Structures are given as structure tokens and as C-alpha cells.
């Protein structure tokens, strides 16, 4: 992959040592073998490798550890594209660390984008989220529809999108990818994602306990397909979507109700019991999403992994790890548990600064 001057691109990936990073590194290295891939990460979860035979970051041309709240602007020198994954990355973490979530996901992220534009970065790819639609009954939500963020995590994504829209001077091509809920196997697997949790539960205890009545809607995207979407966004020209673009990233066939996900896992793993809690308080986070714009703009990068393929890859990966932890929700494979352990053992402060 080369830029307009004919030289290889230099791509900086923040949050590279998380759930998406390992798969993205491999994908970009394969697609753009001559480009320079630089990683930046705070290292909260870098030690949580799951079945990896080598460090995923060994495929990078450079790796820097640091806090995004104190991002060194010199790392942006000569960078053509920034892929911004770094974030406090789900609702439970956002609830416990609300101020930190705002500081990292919004304030520090906005500062990074401003520094990138000042340093002449040509493309900025922001990993946003469909969770910003929140409680959204009725038809699938389009990019132009109103937002209803219900959590600190979702609000931080809205704040970043708004800032990118308002401050974009037109010098940098900005792509906000409103990703569907992530799933699938990774070299740094998370089991605090709905499908991944269901597969782990089925394998470890032979049962999936749906805590809601199973009716909430969730769009899904496999982490491998997230990498394909980011590949497109990194190379996107303003002629395809404009200098500033917000786009739902996923597939219309990836909209599922939670009970459908549980039933799909049970069908893949015969003998799995599924229990639904019809008396549970309603989960207001329910949204179907319309991905027609992405299909129009990026027909060659549409998601390829089916739900069954994602389930199968999770089964293969977990079995390959010898996974059998019945208490996995209290394990480091749940990101909040890792942060809590860091704090309890004195490695992190309560504002998530390394001691």
C-alpha cells in the first residue's frame, strides 16, 4: 500500500495490544506488506495472551508503551494513517471508571486527533460503536438517526464523533466506524462480549443463562471482519464518503436478538441448556442497525464470517487453550477483572495510571 507520493504508508495503531489489535496486525501486515506498522498501547492487557504461539506485536515495525492521556506527538511524524482503537472498552468498565472513560475515550482521543492533523496525518480512523443508538425501538438505525447513548462508554463515543465533526478542517480524512458488537477468537480473547461469553459458558458448564428475557437486539461483527473494515477505512479516499464520514460497520444479516445467539451456540454444541429469564428487568440497550451505507461504500470489504463460523472458531480456540474454567467471569479474560486485579495488587492507581 502506497500513498500519493509513491512511498509505503506508515500506519500508527493505538490500543494495539487489546482484543482487536492482534487480528488487525496480521491482516494489515498481509494486505500491506511494505507498509510500516507502528503500535502504541498502555499495556493493561498485553499479558493476557490466549493460545498465541508468538507475540502478535512481533509483526509490527515498532511498538511503544505509554498512556494515551500523555501521547507523545513525535510518534506522529511521518505517519500517513492513524487507527485509533485505544479506549476503556465496555459498559462495565465505563460504569466503574466513568471519569477515566471520559478522559481517555473523549478528551485524550480528541487531543490525539488534533495532534494528528497538526502533524499532517492524512487519514484518521476512529473505532466508534453502534452502542450509541442505545434504546432504539422500531426500524434499524441509520447514521442520520438520533442517538440515545445510555452508558458512559457510549457517551464517550458520541463526544469523540462530535468533536471530530466539529474540528475537522478538511486537511485530514476522518472515518468514524460505528462497529457492531465484536465477537470471535483473538490472541487476546475477551469473554465479556455476549457471543464469546455464551460459547465459553456452553463449553465450561454446558449451560447458557440469558440474564434478560432474550429480546434485546444486538448487531454482531467478527473481529476478523473488523480488521477488513479498518483496512478499507485506512485506504479510503474523500471521493468515497467525503472528507468526514460516519458509517455503521457491520452487516444487515448480523442483527440478532440475544436469545437467537444463545440458541445458535446451543445448536452448535448439542446438549447445551439455555435458560431465559422472562421476569428480568428490561435491558434498555436494544438496537437493530442498518448497514446499507457501508455496503454501498465498501462492497469488497463486507463482513464474511457467519455467526456459525464465529462460534466454531471460538470453540476451536478455547479448546486449543484447554479452556474449562467454570468461573471464567472472574478471570483475566474479563477486562474489568484485569483492571481490578492491577489496582488491588498495587500496579495501577484508581485513575488507571501505572504506579
Can you characterise this structure?
This protein has 355 residues and is α/β, with parallel strands linked by helices. It has a domain at 10-189 and 219-254 and 284-306: NAD(P)-binding Rossmann-like Domain (Rossmann fold). It has 10 helices and 14 strands. The chain has helices spanning 21-31, 91-96, 98-118, 152-167, 194-205, 223-235, 258-268, 292-297, 307-320, 335-344, and strands at residues 10-14, 36-41, 62-65, 81-84, 123-129, 135-141, 173-179, 181-183, 207-210, 217-222, 244-249, 255-257, 273-276, 286-289. Strands 3-2-1-4-5-7-11 form a 7-stranded parallel beta sheet, sandwiched between helices. Strands 8-10-12 form a 3-stranded mixed beta sheet. It has a two-stranded parallel ribbon with strand order 6-14. Helix 1 (21-31) packs across helix 6 (223-235) and helix 3 packs parallel to helix 4 (152-167). The longest helix has 21 residues, at 98-118.
Amino acid at each position: 500500500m502506497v500513498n500519493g507520493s509513491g512511498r509505503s504508508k506508515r500506519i500508527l495503531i493505538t490500543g494495539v495490544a487489546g482484543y482487536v489489535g492482534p487480528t488487525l496486525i496480521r491482516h494489515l501486515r498481509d494486505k500491506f506488506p511494505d507498509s510500516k506498522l507502528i503500535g502504541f498501547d498502555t499495556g493493561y492487557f498485553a499479558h493476557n495472551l490466549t493460545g498465541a504461539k508468538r507475540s502478535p506485536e512481533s509483526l509490527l515495525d515498532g511498538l511503544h508503551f505509554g498512556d494515551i492521556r500523555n501521547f507523545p506527538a513525535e510518534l506522529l511524524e511521518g505517519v500517513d494513517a492513524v487507527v485509533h482503537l485505544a479506549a476503556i472498552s465496555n459498559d462495565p468498565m465505563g460504569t466503574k471508571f466513568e471519569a477515566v472513560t471520559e478522559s481517555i475515550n473523549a478528551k485524550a482521543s480528541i487531543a490525539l486527533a488534533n495532534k494528528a492533523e497538526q502533524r499532517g496525518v492524512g487519514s484518521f480512523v476512529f473505532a466508534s460503536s453502534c452502542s450509541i443508538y442505545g434504546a432504539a425501538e422500531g426500524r434499524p438505525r441509520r447514521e442520520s438517526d438520533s442517538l440515545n447513548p445510555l452508558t458512559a462508554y457510549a457517551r464517550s463515543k458520541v463526544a469523540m464523533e462530535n468533536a471530530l465533526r466539529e474540528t475537522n478542517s478538511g486537511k485530514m480524512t476522518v472515518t468514524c466506524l460505528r462497529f457492531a458488537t465484536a465477537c470471535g477468537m483473538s490472541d487476546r480473547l475477551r469473554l465479556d462480549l455476549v457471543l464469546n461469553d455464551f460459547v465459553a459458558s456452553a463449553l465450561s458448564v454446558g449451560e447458557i443463562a440469558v440474564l434478560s428475557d432474550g429480546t434485546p437486539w444486538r448487531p454482531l461483527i467478527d473481529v476478523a471482519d473488523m480488521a477488513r473494515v479498518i483496512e478499507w477505512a485506512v485506504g479510503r479516499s474523500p471521493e468515497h464518503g467525503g472528507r468526514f464520514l460516519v458509517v455503521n460497520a457491520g452487516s444487515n444479516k448480523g442483527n440478532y436478538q440475544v436469545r437467537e445467539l444463545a440458541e445458535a451456540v446451543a445448536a452448535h454444541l448439542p446438549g447445551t441448556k439455555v435458560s431465559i429469564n422472562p421476569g428480568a428487568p428490561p435491558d434498555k440497550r436494544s438496537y437493530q442497525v442498518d448497514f446499507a451505507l457501508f455496503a454501498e461504500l465498501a462492497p469488497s470489504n463486507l463482513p464474511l464470517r457467519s455467526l456459525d463460523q464465529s462460534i466454531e472458531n471460538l470453540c476451536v480456540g478455547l479448546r486449543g487453550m484447554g479452556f474449562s474454567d467454570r468461573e471464567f467471569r472472574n478471570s483475566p479474560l474479563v477486562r474489568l477483572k484485569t483492571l481490578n486485579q492491577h489496582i488491588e495488587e498495587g500496579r495501577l492507581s484508581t485513575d488507571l495510571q501505572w504506579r
